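Lab notebook page, bench 4
Experiment: in silico fold of construct C2
Operator: M.H.
Input chain length: 118 residues
Purpose: comparison with the prior construct
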Amino acid sequence: MMNLRSQREKASVDYTNIYQNSEQWHQNFAHVFQCPNSLRHEATLKELLTLHVPGKRVLDIGCGYGGSSLDLLQQQASYVHGIDISERFIASAQSFAQVNRLDFDLHDISQPCKGIMT
């Protein structure tokens, strides 16, 4: 049985391969994986983010390759700090997002957290 870290590392390999091989993948194929309620879910989430994120500092737990962190900046977050258990996800996030108000760190949230937010 796989532990959480090895599951995240396996997922990170798949995501990294997809995004490194085709920057347009999401635009071309993301709709294939949408479930019937996903558009409604996305609209509701965007509305909630619009109401609660502007001007706030956000901790993105399980940030993966950083896509959600970038979305949070687009919703006017003042700063986003992404953490994930996968080294590969964090490396991808750091290479894809060279933004001043965005940082990424490797961290296992089942362990104590000391001063991640600055």
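Observations: Residues 4-106 form a domain with the Rossmann fold fold (CATH 3.40.50.150). The chain has one domain: 4-106.
Next step: discuss at group meeting.
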